[in-house]
Structure formats: C-alpha cells, structure tokens
Write a structure and sequence with these properties.
By secondary structure, the protein is mainly α. It contains 2 helices and 2 strands, in the order H-H-E-E. It has one domain. Strand 1 and strand 2 form a beta hairpin. The protein is flat, with a radius of gyration of 14 Å.
C-alpha cells in the first residue's frame, strides 16, 4: 500500500512540475518572477517535508523558462484543464 502512495505522490509532483514549466514558459529563467515562483514552490515542498513527504529535490526539477523542454526533447502539450486532447 505504501509504495502505491509513493508512486501516486511522485506522479503528482511530475504533473505539478509540468504545470509549473508551462506557467513559467513566458518568463525569463532566473528573472524576478521566475525566481519568486520557484522559491514559493520550494517553500511549499518544505512544508510537505515537515509532515514526512520530502519532495524538495523533485519540485521544480527540470523546469526551464522555455516551458516544455525536458531531457533535450520538447514535450507535447497535454491541454490539461482546457477540455482539449
């Protein structure tokens, strides 16, 4: 049961990172807005670690200012929440 929870949580962090990358795609990496958003996300991950869910090293991982670039390949937009496929 616990491994299912960990797997689910990891998938949710990955989904969060994809949304974060999409939201930051129009901002300059390292700029004020980008840094504030990343700092806030890391602050929230610290709160989770205080209750035993330590995702501090995963939140914001591979988030680039150009949006969906991961591992050198462009990620296909998912249209999550837009009713698109």
């Amino acid at each position: 049961m616990m491994s299912a929870c960990v797997k689910w949580a990891k998938e949710e962090v990955d989904a969060f990172n994809a949304i974060l990358a999409r939201q930051l795609s129009s901002t300059e990496e390292g700029g004020e807005v980008w840094t504030l958003c990343m700092d806030r996300a890391k602050e929230h991950s610290k709160m989770l670690s205080e209750v035993g869910l330590d995702f501090r090293n995963l939140v914001g991982q591979k988030v680039k200012s150009n949006g969906a670039e991961r591992n050198g390949a462009a990620e296909k937009p998912t249209g999550v929440g837009l009713g698109l496929s």
